[in-house]
Amino acid sequence: MCAASPEAERPKRLDFSVHASRRTDPDKGQPDDCRTEYRARTDSVTLTFRELVADAGDFALLETFYRDLYVVGFPDPNERESLENMQSYLRLKAEGWYGDNSYHILLAVDGDRPVACSISDYLARPNAGVIEFLLVDPRQRGRGVGRRLLDATEDLLQADARRAGPEGLTCIAIEMNDPYRFDPARDNMDPFVRARLWSRWGYGALGFSYVQPALSADQAPVNDLILGAKPLQPCLRHGFPPALVRDIVAGYLRWAMRIDDPACDPTFQRMAADLAARRRVPWTPFEIYLGHDPARPLHVREIPTTSDPDFPPTMRLYRRSFPAGPTAIGEAAFAAALGGTLHEGRYHLWAVREFAESPLAGMASFFTFPAGGFVGYVALEPPLRGRWRLPLLLARLEEQMVRDCGPVIGWFFETARTDTSPTALSRLGFYHLPVDYVSPPHVALGGTDAGEQALSLYFKHLGRADQPLTLTKSQLLAAAESWLSNVYGLPEPRTTVTWIRLQKSLQHLSDDQLISTEPTKGRP
Question: Using CA atoms, how far apart are residues 87 and 55, in angstroms rounded to an integer?
Fold first, then answer.
């Protein structure tokens, strides 16, 4: 997990001057006293960036940081390293335990008060750096502290690489909360804001199933993180070799988490199997992962009421895109959803354009419930259709779901069986659920009740498009009850034919058993 100060623009890189000398072991070419200090002035604050070593004075500074900032900054105890371990790692470094690898605790101090810290590792085998975290005192955010601490951290890692050889770092990896899977209420900073900030700093998401193993016998693995990276070789922007990612993860587990043999760790084995099935590991700038691509502009605007000027053209676009059929509804149903009160959850109607001043070219209508989202309609017209705007729109839609109800399990949509291509949808991360699902009665919504017409039911987890399906029977039935009650206005959803047939098609599963299906696409 990483946290840093949100800033309006990327400041220029500072030139740091060495404040204290470093003694170098001539046999190893490495400093044996790593107390290095850098002075920097930022927004009327003079900071000292101090790399800690294993002595009483630095341990006291580390303890102050841990007590005052770290525990608050990492509210999830499963993500939190112990103070004793951090001190132990500094002792091991002084003893030469890391060999060609390295470990850094870099503290930003204002006078004698710690205001920010980063912990990072240099991994010799992949010639890569890893930033375990970068944490800034919330009172110092917006002053450039995070960016300057990052500069100093990256400089330390580059120096490690130069000692190892002339090539320089291949990349710098980071571990952070996945905004789509981590509850913002549990975080010390809005995870979407954090990810956009790191995107401006050159970092992006690595597209594979990353899980942080348990840090101790008393802790659990962490499943709601994402591994990102800053590629320092141009070719890596087109994707990372799986072997490189595997070496980074293995090195991180070995040198940062002290797992003696990562190959024997079940969590690593699952990640290694995922990587082995890929030809490459996609790398996506975090801003694009979150649905914002400067090369593909997309403007979304909420329609709050039927009196909004965007409501009439949005209804005309809806009628062009969704002619009468088993899943079509009348305009009055949109008006009722905008003006009504749901038993639970939130409703949204969006007008979509290329730019704020552009003509209307798309719409989205969707609900968020604690049990999962339900998307009624998404439509794009030229110049947005066929221009890779749909993945961006879905990412924005999923961010809204997180902001509505936290990280829900995912979202559903229903469609006539001839309306969609399962292969095309699976590339976007959708699973065609193997269930018996028929159209709910929706005459009250202004639709046509054509009887029990068979429909396809699709599901997508929030976030990455390549996630394995982890939907249980009980989760699906709870979500279906929510949308039948709130979207279709059915007071007793469990008595409807739709519910009865859906439940019957799942009766071979226990409540907590996963629904078994595979996406129709191969690995990227």
Answer: 9
